[in-house]
Design brief:
Number of strands of chain B: 17
Shape of chain A: flat
CATH topology of chain A: MetI-like fold
CATH architecture of chain A: Orthogonal Bundle
Shape of chain B: globular
Strand content of chain A: under 5%
Distance between the termini of chain A: 28 Å
Strand content of chain B: 5-15%
Radius of gyration of chain B: 24 Å
Largest interface: A-B, 34 and 43 residues
Strand order of the largest sheet of chain B: 8-11-7-12
Oligomer: heterodimer
CATH superfamily of chain A: MetI-like
Structural class of chain B: alpha+beta
Chain lengths: 309, 487
């Protein structure tokens, strides 16, 4: 006990400047990330402005019941989880594919041009994306109907009134918009791989494909696992812009486009109910947290070194 | 270098803390103001003039305008309600009054008004009852022509050219016949413009009982005496609208891609893409005078429904309230009282400063001063109707000097809903209400535009509303209404 305390004291003395340097960052994290956690109690309270966060009365789980009032609960959870799973799988595959392709481009100038061009969709706001989508899918002026389907003698498709098209539309838009950003991350870790591995592999007669499967992929596996774990943590959240702006909040499409976020937004838009909004946030963050723990546990069971914690 | 920087920072901090110390000498109330165009630049000008007038009248407080633009209005006000940084605001474009009251964000004003707001009570008369929630008064509705009837406004040039007589349009049938004539002459023109997201028709002849959704309503057009709350979507009024919607969409009266519209319906009249649009006003003259300025070209207005009805929702849509957390509630009430009664203060906030923004004409109305016009002017920007009492200010030409008298007269003569003054407290059925409003969003716009299979969609609407508990909402409304009527 005595020695342990001494040890701490010695460390404190020795690393004192480092601890001081930690204070601003720590303060920021505490104020910005930990103090707001006390707001989670609002999910179980009937919030009154005059009484404030701590003074408002508890009201059990009444804030949660509206989520399960209709059959919509199943639809919105299915949509949120389903889309996010598809986005994680397709998005990761596509991003890794593009990152490896980028790495195979040998001319530096060309590589830089591609690297920049694929980032552009990521930088466009969803409001603008929704109009690009509308320009393609609209009924009276849309490109797909008026320049492709009608000249081919086919029936024009009513994209904005029929939900069946939207799983494909939303997935393509999401992958198109985000692949650039995520492939840059993978690309960055690929160029960090020691070139000596590839040189040795070439000497041993391994082709490009063999190099990719035996050197590149195994070496970027930690990055893949980390990024996937991070996305799983947000699996109960959906990109509001994608699900609200891109379908232009069209009622008839709700079955295919409603997620927890848009449902809560629509349900509470008129009421501005702090308690029920916190309840939705509570479900999203707590379930996401449990899922991250679960996935990390699964990763650790399979490969101990790759787990985050 | 670092030392200089540190000294500079210190100096900035000192100066800023000093300026704080100087500003706090007189009680100052913060009045939220909906920003239009470039009014912010002239805020201080009008604010100083108002404060000068306050000092002249012997009040020992001053005001400060907080300019908020339309897009962030509701969010910004909500934040300010939370920390008491606003003292007087118009609860427009926000959640309903009963919801705000239920959250405890509004100050009860019964006693404040009795003591400091006699002018408000005298001006509004019985209409102030509409700002009462659960027996407690929470604000003062702005003075307005409170009643509303459904109107159709149309492009005068086109109507004259094809020989449409607006007088002959008195209901949906005569409107449909007239629109067929115009459509034949202008096959590519939209007849009925819709607004953002596809909505083109307000509820009409209906008392929403103080809520925004017609989930449980009094159908005034079907029986103006009845106090039986019914399901609006099962009413004959709504069913007949579905029949008209079928005819109108088959005739091609609606816009192309109506669901993707991103503008207000009047913009489509303004830019010549549509012949007409539905609006709700107390009478044809008011619809004309307001919308002609808005659209910027000559129009006709034809009243479609027979009576103009005054309901709680119409009256309380723009109610001036004092936040519960405000520390200056007495001063705020006194200022609100002046906004209702003092013509010079009301003119300042509604129209700007005489000689700077406007000049009074010989006819007793006002026009832009110098070479200002609706675009270049700063303060007025057409926002007069946002303030508590435009009816004691000068009207803008070409409106006659006595135009507001007709507004006030219409409040005396209009039909009054038997539930006028009753506002539903929806917190008891909030789960059902949010579930139902999502379902309404899902179907109703599509139904009224006849997109998809109307009969099947209508059946799904009714079934889903049923499952989401619309009957509970109707029963709760009925119970509260009966209790209210008994008092």
């Amino acid at each position: 006990m005595q020695t342990a305390f001494k040890g701490i004291k010695r460390k404190l003395k020795r690393f004192f400047p480092l601890y001081v340097m930690m204070i601003p960052g720590l303060t920021y994290i505490i104020i910005n990330n930990y103090i707001p956690l006390t707001g989670l109690q609002l999910a179980f309270k009937k919030f009154k402005y005059v009484q404030g966060i701590w003074g408002s009365a508890w009201n059990g789980v009444k804030n949660f019941t509206y989520l399960f009032k209709t059959g919509d609960a199943w639809t919105i959870i299915r949509n949120t989880l389903g889309y996010n799973l598809v986005f994680i799988i397709l998005g990761t595959l596509f991003a890794i594919f593009v990152a490896i392709m980028l790495n195979e481009i040998k001319r530096k100038k060309v590589q830089q041009v591609y690297q920049t061009v694929i980032l552009i969709p990521y930088l466009i706001s969803y409001v603008i994306v929704s109009y690009i989508t509308y320009a393609a899918l609209g009924e009276s002026n849309g490109m797909i109907n008026n320049s492709i389907l009608i000249p081919l003698g086919m029936e024009p498709a009513k994209f904005y009134t029929d939900p069946k098209y939207w799983p494909f539309i939303l997935t393509s838009v999401q992958v198109w918009k985000t692949f650039g950003y995520s492939s840059i991350i993978y690309f960055a870790s690929i160029i960090g791989i020691d070139k000596a591995y590839y040189e040795a592999a070439t000497v041993d007669g391994a082709g490009t494909w063999k190099q990719i499967t035996s050197i590149t992929l195994p070496l970027i596996k930690p990055v893949i696992i980390t990024l996937t774990l991070l996305s799983i943590g947000r699996i109960f959240y959906s990109d509001f812009g994608l699900f609200y702006q891109v379908p232009m909040n069209t009622g008839l499409l709700y079955d295919a486009t409603s997620t927890i976020d848009t449902y809560v937004y629509r349900g509470l838009l008129e009421t501005n109910d702090v308690g029920r909004a916190s309840a939705a946030g509570f479900i999203q963050s707590v379930l996401g947290f449990l899922l991250v723990l679960g996935t990390n546990y699964a990763v650790r069971a399979l490969e101990k070194d790759q787990a985050l914690f | 270098m670092k030392k200089i920087l540190a000294l500079l920072l210190l100096a900035v901090m000192l100066v800023s803390s000093m300026s704080f110390a100087v500003a706090e000498e007189k009680e100052t109330i913060q009045v939220a103001y909906l920003l239009a165009m470039n009014a912010a630049e002239e805020r201080d000008l009008v604010q100083d003039a108002v404060n000068e007038r306050l000092a002249e009248l012997g009040y020992d407080f001053q005001i400060e305008f907080v300019c908020i633009d339309f897009a962030s209005w509701a969010t910004q006000i909500n934040l300010m309600l939370n920390d008491g940084s606003v003292d007087l605001f118009n609860a427009a474009f926000m959640t309903s009054l009963s919801m705000l009251a239920d959250q405890g964000s509004l100050a009860p004003v019964d006693e404040l008004f009795a003591q400091y707001g006699q002018g408000i009570l005298d001006t509004l008369g019985e209409y102030i009852e509409c700002a009462r929630v659960g027996g407690v008064l929470y604000g003062a509705p702005k003075v307005n022509a409170f009643s509303s009837a459904l109107m159709f406004v149309m492009d005068k040039a086109i109507a004259d050219e094809v020989g449409i007589d607006p007088e002959a349009i008195t209901d949906f049938d005569t409107l449909t016949e007239a629109l067929k004539v115009v459509k034949a002459a202008y096959p590519d023109l939209t007849m009925i413009a819709n607004g953002n997201g596809g909505a083109y028709l307000d509820t009409f002849d209906t008392d929403l009982l103080g809520t925004a959704d017609p989930l449980g309503a009094l159908m005034l057009g079907e029986d103006g005496e009845s106090t039986t709350v019914v399901n609006y979507y099962e009413s004959d009024t709504f069913k007949s609208m579905l029949e008209y919607a079928k005819i109108w969409s088959e005739e091609g009266f609606f816009m192309k891609d109506p669901l993707n519209a991103q503008d207000g319906s009047m913009a489509y009249l303004s830019n010549g893409q549509s012949f007409g649009s539905f609006v709700s006003y107390s009478d044809e003259a008011t619809a004309l005078s307001v919308q002609e300025k808005n659209i910027g070209k000559p129009i006709y207005a034809a009243q479609i429904t027979q009576d103009a009805w005054a309901t709680t929702s119409n009256v309380a849509g723009m109610t001036w309230c004092i936040p519960a957390l405000s520390e200056h509630q007495v001063a705020a009430t006194q200022f609100l009282n002046l906004l209702f009664t003092d013509a010079s203060i009301s003119n300042l906030v509604c129209n700007g400063i005489e000689g700077v923004h406007y000049v009074v004409t010989d006819e007793g109305n006002i026009t832009f001063a110098g070479d200002l016009n609706p675009v270049t002017t700063g303060w007025p920007s057409g926002m007069g109707t946002f303030w508590p009492n435009i009816c004691i200010t000068y009207p803008w030409a070409p409106d006659a000097a006595d135009v507001y008298d007709s507004w006030l007269a219409s409040n005396e003569t209009c039909q009054k809903s038997p539930a006028l003054g009753f506002a539903f407290d929806s917190s008891v059925v909030s789960d059902e209400a949010s579930a139902c409003s999502t379902i309404v969003d899902k179907y109703v716009i599509a139904l009224l535009l006849n997109i998809g299979d109307t009969d099947a969609l209508y059946q799904s609407l009714l079934n889903e509303l049923d499952a989401a508990g619309i009957d509970d909402i109707i029963a709760a409304k009925q119970a509260q209404l009966d209790a209210w009527a008994a008092n």
